[in-house]
C-alpha cells in the first residue's frame, strides 16, 4: 500500500483582523504535532506575506484563490506566478463559495488549476455536491463532472501537485458533518475514478481530504477511514481545536 502523507488545510476565508490571525498563528507555532503531517493555512490574501514570515515549519501558507493568467488587466485578481514569486506554494481552488458566489464554473476551476500547476504551485482542488444533488442521488455524477473538468486540463504527471478536497456543500459551515461511511464511500469512488480515468499510480498517490464541519471531536473517527487522507477545515481552523484536527492523522 502507498503511504499518503496526512494533509490538513485551514481555510480562514474572509475572517480575522491581522491581530486576530497572528494570535491563531502563535497557537499553531507553539503546538506540538504528532508524526508526519503536511499543514497549510490560508489567511486572506492581504495577510499572506506577513503570516508567511511568522509561521514556523511544518506549517506553510496557502492562497484561497488565484487566476488563470500570468499577468495583465485583471483587476482584483492574483496570478499563480505572483504567488510562486512570493514563495506561496499552495492555493485553494474551486471552493464551493467561489463556485456559488463568484461564478467559478467547472471549466474556470480547471483552467485555474492548470495555470497554478504550470506555475509550480500545489493545488487544493475542491469538489462536492449540494444537498439537493445528494438527495437526487447525483453525488457521484457531480464529483465526477467536477473532476473530469480538471482531468481534461491536467497531465498524468501533474496530479502529484494536486490534493483533492471532497467538500459536500451541505456540510460546509452547517455543523452537519458527513458520517465516516458517507465520506469514505465518496472518497473510495473518487479514487476508483482516478484509477480508471488517469492511472492506478495517481489513484494510489493522490491525497483525498475531507471538508465540511470537521472539528476536534469528529476528526479522529473520520481519519480512520481508509481513503480519508486529511482535512480541509473552515470554522474550526480559527479555534484551538484545530491543533487536535491536525494531530488526528493516522
Ligand atoms: C470550508 O470552508 O472549506 C469548510 C470545510 O468549512 P467548515 O469547516 O466551516 O465547514
Summary tags:
8 strands, TIM Barrel, single chain, 250 residues, alpha/beta, 8-stranded parallel beta barrel, binds phosphoenolpyruvate, globular
What does this structure look like?
With 250 residues, the protein is α/β, with parallel strands linked by helices. It has one domain (6-246): Alpha-Beta Barrel (TIM Barrel), CATH 3.20.20. 38% of the residues lie in helices and 16% in strands. The protein contains 11 helices and 8 strands. It has helices at 18-30, 48-54, 80-85, 96-101, 106-118, 131-135, 139-151, 180-197, 200-205, 219-222, 242-246, and strands spanning 6-11, 37-42, 59-63, 90-93, 122-127, 162-166, 208-211, 230-233. The chain has an 8-stranded parallel beta barrel with strand order 1-2-3-4-5-6-7-8, surrounded by 4 helices. Helix 1 (18-30) links the parallel strand 1 (6-11) and strand 2. Helix 5 (106-118) packs across helix 7 and helix 7 (139-151) packs parallel to helix 8. The chain is globular, with a radius of gyration of 17 Å. The relative contact order is 0.16. The model has no long low-confidence stretch (mean pLDDT 97). The protein binds phosphoenolpyruvate.
Intertermini distance: 14 Å
Q: Percentage of helical residues?
A: 25-40%
Report the average pLDDT across residues: 97
The geometry reads as: globular
Any guess at the CATH architecture? Alpha-Beta Barrel
**Distinct ligands:** phosphoenolpyruvate
Q: Say which CATH homologous superfamily is assigned.
A: Aldolase class I
So how many helices?
A: 11
Helices and strands, in N-to-C order?
Answer: EHEHEHEHHEHHEHHEHEH
Amino acid at each position: 500500500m502507498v503511504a499518503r502523507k496526512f494533509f490538513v488545510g485551514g481555510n480562514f476565508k474572509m475572517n480575522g483582523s491581522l491581530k486576530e490571525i497572528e494570535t491563531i498563528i502563535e497557537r499553531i507555532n507553539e503546538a506540538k504535532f504528532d508524526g508526519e503531517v503536511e499543514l497549510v493555512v490560508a489567511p486572506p490574501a492581504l495577510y499572506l506575506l506577513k503570516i508567511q514570515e511568522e509561521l514556523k515549519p511544518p506549517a506553510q501558507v496557502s492562497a484561497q484563490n488565484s487566476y488563470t493568467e500570468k499577468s495583465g488587466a485583471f483587476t482584483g485578481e492574483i496570478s499563480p506566478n505572483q504567488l510562486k514569486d512570493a514563495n506561496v506554494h499552495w492555493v485553494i481552488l474551486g471552493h464551493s463559495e467561489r463556485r456559488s458566489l463568484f461564478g467559478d464554473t467547472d471549466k474556470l476551476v480547471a483552467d485555474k488549476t492548470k495555470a497554478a500547476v504550470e506555475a509550480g504551485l500545489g493545488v487544493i482542488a475542491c469538489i462536492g455536491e449540494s444537498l439537493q444533488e445528494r438527495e437526487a442521488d447525483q453525488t457521484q455524477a457531480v464529483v465526477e463532472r467536477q473532476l473530469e473538468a480538471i482531468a481534461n486540463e491536467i497531465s498524468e504527471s501533474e496530479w502529484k501537485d494536486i490534493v483533492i478536497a471532497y467538500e459536500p456543500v451541505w456540510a460546509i459551515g452547517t455543523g452537519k458533518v458527513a458520517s465516516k461511511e458517507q465520506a469514505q464511500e465518496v472518497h473510495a469512488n473518487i479514487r476508483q475514478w482516478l484509477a480508471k480515468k488517469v492511472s492506478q499510480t495517481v489513484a494510489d498517490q493522490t491525497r483525498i481530504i475531507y471538508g465540511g464541519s470537521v472539528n476536534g471531536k469528529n476528526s479522529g473517527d473520520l481519519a480512520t477511514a481508509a481513503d480519508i487522507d486529511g482535512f480541509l477545515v473552515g470554522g474550526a481552523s480559527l479555534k484551538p481545536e484545530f491543533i487536535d484536527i491536525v494531530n488526528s492523522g493516522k
